[in-house]
Queue: 2 jobs
Job 1
Amino acid sequence: MSWGALRGVGRDQRKLMADLSTAVSRRIDIPADPPLVFQALCLAMSERRSGRPIVLVERAFPEEASGTTGLWLDTKEQDIIVLEESLEPDHKLVVLGHELWHVEAGHRHDLGGAAVAARAALAGHQDWPEIARTIAARSHSHQADEVDAERFGILMGSSMGRWLATPGTRRLDDVARRIGESLGYSGPQGN
Ligand SMILES: [Zn+2]
């Protein structure tokens, strides 16, 4: 298995990874249950951003959302990260890392009212499939940003994967696939 995708990791990504690792390991005893690790990561990221809340939500994305497994919604009061609920924990970690890099780098998508609608849909469990499709189509569309975000997701998966107390049995397959996709990136995949 090759970690070739990590060759291009820049100093800023390594620094963020080191900072988040330190913050998480101070907050919880590792290894820990995956939801605890994810929550600690979001809290650590929130602290970097002057306490602006980062809310983590898990939902099923509709199949029509072009394979989307994660989204970042930038609303007025908070950031919301949505992860595909059916993923193995270690795959979720990679997707969470991907979205956290979008947050860190300020890769804003012009979602306008769609972000607010999505927030309401997430709260009420209504209209979520339709809104997820709309937002997925507008997110993850800038290729250079996607390559950077995916690289950070893979870095997080490789750095913190062992911190998950119940690693998924498909870990190697999931991560290897994402590395392969990252290396052979051929346009927006919406993941
Ligand atoms: Zn992305």
Job 2
Amino acid sequence: MSTDTVMPYDEALERFEPVLGLETHVELGTASKMFCGCQAEFGAPPNTNVCPVCLALPGGLPTANVKAIESTIRIGLALNCSIAEWCRFARKNYFYPDMPKNYQISQYDEPLCFDGYLDVEVNGKTVRIEIERVHLEEDTGKSTHVGGATGRIQGADYSIVDYNRAGIPLVEIVTKPIPGTDRLAPEVARAYVTELREVLRTLNVSDVRMEEGSMRSDVNVSLMPRGSSEWGTRTETKNVNSLRSVERAVHSEIERQAAILADGGRIIQETRHFHENTGTTTSGRSKEEAQDYRYFPEPDLVPIAPDVAWVAELKAAMPELPRLRRKRLQQEWGVSDLDMEAMHNNDAIGLVEATVAAGAPPADARKWWMGELSRRANEAGIPLSELLITPDQIARVCAMVAGGALNDKLARQVLEGVLNGEGSPDEVVAARGLQIVNDEGELLAIIDQVLAGNADAAEKVRSGKIAAVGALVGGVMKASRGKADAGRARELLLEKLGVSE
Ligand SMILES: [Zn+2]
């Protein structure tokens, strides 16, 4: 799709230093909209959750949703922000068909929360991301462009608009510029959005579904030549809707901008669109400056002046935040920083925790989620949490391995069966006949058969080359179709051959 020339990433990083910025929009999970009583749920039939206020019919007057203000303050507190003692909403004026008022109620120079930070871990190192502001606004409606090849307005036959989303409370979380990430810029961007999503999930303020758009990040990237201290012009890639895409968008913008700058060109300040299929961005529109929006204080709403005692109460009732929770779990599970980070990046911590809660040893729970199950999720191109298997089921498989009913190889087949929808672990074991051969007589019969067919290896073992028993154990496992207990088979083989270790 994109025909931009690019500079290979390594070369781009040798010559330029990236500066990041991230603006994340989060739809709050309140029952009603920001300034009216309409329901705020996702997926209702188009234009059914609307009223004179959110449709901006004459005479409609907004009133602020206190639950949304509370959620925003809690987000600010979790991000170590100061909370304004007094602030106002502002009108942001612009025309767009999915915004019935022709302005958006937002906040401008008086955000509800400001000057915070969020620490994230990348490659075992802590990176502090400074937060400039957290403010509250309302979402727009949703346009759908019909008839074109790309789903964009260019080339479409007609457009339809759904105002259900118009007026849903939206929190915008804006970082300060993030210099110094160097070649880890893509990973830092991803780690930040991952951590932020975790914080929001812990606060239970949003369902943070990136694919449904309830959380979406705009990714700002600029480059400055090595040795320069003057920041370059940034581009803003809009509405990136997965963690992986955040990482790829930064990567591709670095490569694209570096090629332009190296060629003596200049970067245009603009919004860009990210394309999942190519992993690249294309030009959107030139970026407005703040003055283009003609902000002014919203005259229909009173200022927000959160009571200091109320804010203190909200702070005291904060849940354990993800980073502290990870530190605690890391200690309980006894794993390294890097292992913990790998679990975090795979969104596996909650799954491992639930599996441990269901009775599995932490090491086993981690092994299955980060090994076999991660591999299968990768193959299917889905997150771990979408695999059709539960922490309880993994714990059951772990118990069967610990009790000697399964070995790892059989356990993998049980997992496969569960993932294929063949039922619970016990049902898969029964249906596929996966029990380990515990019947000593049956095992000895297989051993005799294997010894008869492998006289050379048997002789080697007898003459003291104990390592050769491996081939015989392999033969037993093969003859039993993986159902023998390899450890017990080895013992019996050595016994039979009259060799002791
Ligand atoms: Zn309404």
